[in-house]
Design the sequence.
C-alpha cells in the first residue's frame, strides 16, 4: 500500500462588497486571469443542501468559531441533477479543506428524505462517514443555499477568486433537485461576497487588483446566514 496523500488545507478569505464593487472587480480580474472553464456565460449557479443535527451543532460551531469543525452538504450546479456531489468542508487553524464524492440521483433523494443509503460499506469513504453521522448524531438536511458565482482561476498558487451574488435560501429541502425552487433573499440589497482561496501565498499582482476602499475580512458563513433566515 502507498503512503496516504497529505491533506491540503487552503487559505480562504471572505469580504462583503457592494454590487458596484462586483462590477469593478470583474472588469479588473478579466484583464489579468481566466474565468473558470465551467462558467459558460460568465457565471454559474450553485445550490447546496446542508446537514445538521437536532441540536444545531454545526450552526452553533460556525457562529462560535469552533476549531476544528466540519459541515456536510450536497451540491449541484445550474439546477441540474446531471452532476451531484457530496462534500465535507473542514475548518482547522483558520484554513479549509474540502473532500467530495459523486452521488447518484437515487442516493441523493434518499439523503434528502433523511434516509440511509443502502450497502454503505461498498460506497465511497465520505458517504460512509456521512452515514455514520446520520446514525449516531442524527444528521439530516436542514436548508438549501443558492447563489450565482463568477469564478476566476490562476494556476500558480492554485488561486481561486469568486464573486458570489444573489444569495437565497429555502427550508423546503424536498425541492432541492428541481430546476427552480421557491426561495427568499437573505442579504441586504446590493450586498455581495468576495472569496479568495489559495494554497501558500497570493501573488502580489492579484493582491493589488483586489484592493478596494474599506475592504475588511469577515468570518462570513452563507450557511449560518441562511439558517437564521429559515429557522
Sequence:
Amino acid at each position: 500500500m502507498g503512503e496516504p496523500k497529505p491533506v491540503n488545507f487552503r487559505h480562504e478569505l471572505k469580504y462583503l462588497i457592494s454590487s458596484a464593487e462586483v462590477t469593478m472587480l470583474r472588469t479588473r480580474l478579466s484583464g489579468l486571469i481566466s474565468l473558470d472553464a465551467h462558467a459558460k456565460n460568465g457565471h454559474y449557479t450553485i445550490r447546496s443542501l446542508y446537514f445538521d443535527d437536532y441540536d444545531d451543532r454545526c450552526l452553533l460551531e460556525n457562529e462560535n468559531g469552533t476549531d476544528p469543525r466540519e459541515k456536510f452538504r450536497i451540491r449541484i450546479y445550474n439546477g441540474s441533477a446531471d452532476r451531484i456531489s457530496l462534500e465535507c468542508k473542514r475548518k482547522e487553524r483558520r484554513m479549509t479543506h474540502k473532500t467530495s464524492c459523486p452521488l447518484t440521483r437515487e442516493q441523493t433523494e434518499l439523503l434528502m428524505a433523511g434516509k440511509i443509503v443502502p450497502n454503505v460499506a461498498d460506497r465511497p469513504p465520505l458517504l460512509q462517514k456521512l452515514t455514520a453521522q446520520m446514525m449516531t448524531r442524527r444528521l439530516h438536511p436542514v436548508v438549501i443555499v443558492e447563489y450565482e458565482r463568477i469564478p476566476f482561476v490562476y494556476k500558480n498558487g492554485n488561486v481561486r477568486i469568486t464573486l458570489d451574488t444573489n444569495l437565497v435560501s429555502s427550508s423546503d429541502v424536498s425541492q432541492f433537485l428541481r430546476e427552480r425552487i421557491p426561495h427568499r433573499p437573505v442579504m441586504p440589497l446590493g450586498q455581495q461576497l468576495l472569496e479568495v482561496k489559495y494554497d501558500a501565498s497570493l501573488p502580489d499582482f492579484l493582491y493589488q487588483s483586489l484592493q478596494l476602499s474599506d475592504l475588511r475580512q469577515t468570518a462570513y458563513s452563507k450557511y449560518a446566514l441562511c439558517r437564521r433566515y429559515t429557522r
